[in-house]
Amino acid sequence: MERSKTQATSSGRSFLSRTLARHESSGHSVEHGKGPLGLNTLYDPAKSAIVDLVLVHGLGGGSRSTWTKSDSPSQYWPKEWLPQDLDFQDVRIHSFGYNSNWGSESILNIHDFAKALLASMSDCPRIPRNTNDPLVLVGHSMGGLVIKRAYIMARQKEEYQTLAARVKAILFLATPHRGADLAQLLTKVLNVSPGARPFVKDLHRNSLATQAINEEFPQYSQDLRLYSFYETLPMTYGFGKSLVVEKDMAVLGYPNEQSTYLNANHRDVCKFTDQTDPNYQIVRNALASIIDKLRTNVIPGRDEFNNDQRRQLDSYLGVSDAFEDDIMDIHNIRLPGSCEWLIAKNEFIEWRDSANTQLYWISAKPGTGKTVLSGKVVHHLKDLDRHIAFFFFDYRNKLQTTISSFLLSIAAQMAHTHTDVLQAVLDVCEMDDRLCEADYRTIWRKLFTGAILRTKFAQPQYWVLDALDECKSGSDLLPLLSKVIEMRCNIRILLTSRDHFESHAQKLYPKVGVISEEILEDDTKSDIALYLEANMDKLPSIDEDDKENIVDKILGKSAGCFLWVSLILQELKQAHTSAEIRQVLEDVPSDMNDLYSRILSSMSRAPHYGKVLAKAILTWAVCCSRPLTTDELYQALQIDIKDRIDDIKMSIESRCGQFVYVDAQSRVQMVHQTARDFLLSSSDFSDFGVDERVGHRRLLTTCMEYLNGTEMRGSRHRKPSTGRIIREQGPFVDYACNSSFEHIVHVSSHDEEVLLILAKFLSSSNVLSWIEYIAQQSDLHRLMQAGKNLKQFLQRRPKHLAPIGKDFILLDCWATDLIRLVTKFGKNLKASPSSINHLIPPFCPPETAARRLFAASARGITVTGLSGTTWDDCLSTIVDPEEQYTALTCSDKSFAIGTSSGKILVYNEMTCQQTQVLEHPEPVKLLQFGRRLDILISSGARNIRLWNTVSWEQVWKLNTSQQCMSLSLLEEDQLLLGALKNNNLAVWDLAEGTLRDTADWTQDIEALQSHVFRRPIAAAFCMESGLLAVVYRGQDILLWDLNRDALHDSYSKTGSSSLNPSKNMTAGVTAGVVFSVTPNATLLVAGYSDGDLVLFDTLEGIVKEKTPADAQTLACSPDGRTLASGDSSGTIQLFEFETLRLLYRIKSDEYCIRELTFSGDNHRLLDIRGSECRVWDPLVLVRQDGEEGSSDSISVSTAPQEVLMESSENVVLITSMISDLKGKVFFCGKEDGSVYLFDTKSGRQTQKLFSHARGVSIISLFFDSESNTLSSIDNASRVKSHRLKHGEEIGEAVDILIDYRAGAAVNQVLTNRGATHILVCTAQSDILWSISSNDESTVIETILWEERGPSRWATHPLNQEWLILVSDGVAHLYEWQTLRRITRPEGILLEDSVLPELAIRSITPCFRNTAIAIMSSESLRPQSKFKLRLWNASDLTINSKVAAPMPNYHALADHVKTLIGDDGRRLVFLRSDNWICSVDPESGKGDMYTRHFFLPADWLSTNVKLMAEVTHGGDIIFVKRNEVAVIRRGLDNIEEEKGDKPGKRPSLLGSHMGRGRC
């Protein structure tokens, strides 16, 4: 079988193209004929128009026919296409008609037609007179002359001055500005017909009419924007075939004119087939460009509009306007008149003005001025008001060598130019505010394919890329540029490189239009001559003859190399006589390396003093990761050479000025990359050569010496704040902090001194100041990169030395810690950089360096109770024993789980907390979030549902004939493509909720007859390559070409069936298939029944790799780099997609993995199995970009990481908790029915107290500390009360006081002080028991309720004999002894507008028993939103009728996520941003609460209710699944936010006796 040769469908158009065509098309009817005379308004926008566009036809044309192809109404583009175009929505469009029929007699000429046009525009009621709205005129053929004459008349006549001033631009389509030879021939033919036709004679070459127009028009048109388009195809007529208007006749040649060609004949330059017609695109884009520029001028302040948003965007993207400084530096270097040879080239003009060529590749040898040439192109395009973005790759600055930096810079520049791009990019960044730290694949996917490249640009966009060869991963960038062009985004790219285009051609999309050009010696000779002429005056005095001779000799030896000429001029400046000048010119070599050798020899012969400094300057200039400023280098050198320096700039110029210079921004730069390369290669034969490893070691040790010094010494006991680091720091701090660890990858791994220096720094508190500086002044990606580089350094050591010793262990710990600090605490670090000093270390695992070194303070925060000693890769586990999880998907903000019962559970992607529950009334098979729109797609066996993820309402229900195996969204999420189990493709229109089309991929294909009666088991789409992969049991994989409606190929396990006819039938695909999603993706992975994972290249039809995996399910990361597989035993493996190299394995003996998916940022992996969903956060997903890789000489360990996952069967979750007031112990109930005693000091359980029935969960506990009575409730409605052993230490349960089954769900249990009475509450009844230890507990009173909302009881804080009941916004008081209501029947109205609408959750006495805090929520679900209100306890009395909440604490209402409790001094709560805070009665205002510390985000990543308590000793007790964390002295820490004015701290208060949140 031949690949891609199968016959397509009979329609001649593919299923996909038919669908997309129908999506874009719309039909309108228009009247027939050439069109009416006069000015006809075709479109008048509903909103105010800002521009009037007038079209004027030519000889023999009409107001409609001239602009309509094939007389089809739908092709009348000014009326049918432009009004639907977003860029013309505010443009009023008119067409002017006049009788130019040369077949009939006429007395009119061009002047007459111009008068009629002028009068029509002036009198048209649709064109307001009292406005300055611009006019844009378009003329075809003679219509252009009519427009020119009309404009001249308007400028000359007083009554038309206002109208003339409004004309801003004119477009000429094949206009015979100087006449046309064909007009003379036409006149001869028409002479045989009676009657005159003056307007035809006006078209003769150099007629009086055209001469007069051409003499006057230049006087008035200097301020107009002029566009001239000329024809290139001949036209056939009755008496011949030729161009009607030659190029020289159609182009004005004015400075303010832009001209380009159209690939059409004279008649068709203004008629177009459809909106994709290249000619239409050229004309349309020119119009849109003009209008966009005019729109900017019309709308006041548009250039200043959104400046705040632009600044915010720059912050998101981590870019600055430094690129403008770079282009100005280059501009200042370039001499006037230079580089004009490129601008004049026909190839350049074609690239600039034609839509047919999108890529201009300029190659040249080093030192030939490519960067200056790129700068010239940038300024040239800016002078033409073209929209341009540029990037100059620069080996001297690491930030300017990566694809990520290029993409971020281009995105920022385009957003600064286009408001719609600005908004689109902001939308992306607001969803991912750390996008600038992501790898380039993620940036490309989110910013470009997801936003920027989907924008319709009104005019061509230009990208200028200089020095592609200095991009670290230039070959990886080319497919991205190819994708830009392939997507037809109206973006034209010019790049320069040392490499020729041919060496990279295979990386580009085959249909890319490319101009490849090499800069030759003859091209730059004139520029070098200009340069020499400008610098001759700086040489010793010589006469004109000598000057000319010098220029000729230098030009002859330069070989087109500017750098060589520059260095020669520097040598000549040292000559003092003509003889010396001649000697220099004779001796100097023309080869650059020979010239560099000569310079080094000269430096070696110089006096000894200054050589140490010169060597140091060269080393820093060669090895620095970015150019240092003179101030930075001054401080660095003094640390390095241990000596004072007088004038750094003078030292550079005098000692090594031919290799290094200081630019306009005071940055110390290498003169060229060739100079750097030479110095790195010359260490063996010159004292000034630089050994790369030695050089980087020198810079690293200098940076470490600074970081270990006093400037970085901070106080660890400084209170946290968001302010700046207080200590005075020198200019070198930025380089030392940001770049020190970049040098470590180049240092020898067996260098013991480096190991000791690093260990000294990482064991001192200075490391915290370094982290604080990075968090405050830079970006956290620096910390992650430092960790990666440190890990590489250590992984290389085993090749030389055994990895033992405490220093090695310390560095190894920090290598992991630096990455984990960002992934676990990144947002906290950015918000509060100083939190690294004492808030973050206690929450790190015990065996981490951060915890061991910096969390041991006797006065600081401590965390005990957790068993984990190292970082945990499992971030969260979501369990619901009542459900079977069947589907999974993830977006940037949320992830969703589908269940067999039809529920869709939606969770916050960051916190893993449930946010929504949706109902899809059948088992959910597939889920998918929208890429562009806020939508979620859910699919079952019989229907698909579309959900709005803002309102979470169902938008559409779409019926399906068969179950979907795979889904893909198209056309910016407007269309949904599905592969069904009946071998059909289906497309739904999501805007209308309708089925648009279906197609059978097996129809009419003989080779597939064996499949027709089989049902496929899996499918996968790859929209990047337009392929569908379909899996049949026991058969080859079928690859279907969506663009051709044809079989692309079929794959056996050995590869393409067309290339390998013999089939391997021993193993079928069982794990399905998955495509890589990288640009120009050609990779496909399939899992086979014999356990093999096979990687195919669909372009070559070959097997690239195989590896054993036993995969049952597969998933690809959004960046296309990582493949995840899950097997039947529950083991997960991560592979590098391109090589199938194993990266990571999670071993398990649990359930089979049902589905896997990655988070939007590629850093997390989610799996579902049985009733569980786990969220993984492995370090291996924080992978190093290829572009950030280190030297090729560096070898690192590639052994996969392996994690053993604890079986969930061994984990018994804690389901309830209560603490003893004394704070020494607390109690926990578990899901297996047991109740345990825990020690507060260690956080560990000490003994089992008692159990309910096996398998039931303890849902609530209440403890009375006076009687040591512990009451418990289970989820089987059983209530038990136990008397615990008395003594100094609470012991085992000695008496069962009550054991009662309520028969209905028990909501609450509480006892009075001393536990003589117990109240058991259900939704229908409240029962009061009298309890005793002799098994004689009796019921005292029962209250039955027919109907009531959520309610809660509590002991009155001011009277221990009373009970408070709160329900439906009303409070009642009851007697504890009898349960008799003692308030009036109406109760006490709690005045609060929101309380009656909410479900009450708890009542907590607080503020020395003077107040009660009532916590309510929207529902009783664990993750509902909470409201907190405080009431004065004295307002709740027997005689009270109304009680109002305490007004000082209203501000707390929306800030409290969970109320933790009262510690006897203050009310403690968890704020919505995960900070533990408190408020006391003496602070005066509720919004004056105090922040203490934050909880790690992964602590809150759970689907169970949050359980936390505070003891009267100030300890916070927090439940984490099956363990409890005890946070001691956390409330002693106070962090003041900006504007805080803490009140006087209250004194320690007495304790309550009853304990439990009621």
TrEMBL record:
PANTHER family: AMELOGENIN, GPI INOSITOL-DEACYLASE. It holds the Pfam family Abhydrolase_6. Residues 53-195 form the AB hydrolase-1 domain. This is GPI inositol-deacylase. Residues 337-498 form the Nephrocystin 3-like N-terminal domain. SUPFAM superfamilies: alpha/beta-Hydrolases, DPP6 N-terminal domain-like, P-loop containing nucleoside triphosphate hydrolases, Quinoprotein alcohol dehydrogenase-like. The keyword Repeat applies. It comes from Imshaugia aleurites. Residues 1536-1558 are annotated as: Disordered. Keywords: Repeat. It comes from the Eukaryota. Residues 608-690 form the GPI inositol-deacylase winged helix domain. InterPro entries: AB_hydrolase_1, AB_hydrolase_fold, GPIID_WHD, NPHP3-like_N, P-loop_NTPase, Quinoprotein_ADH-like_sf, WD40/YVTN_repeat-like_dom_sf, WD40_rpt.
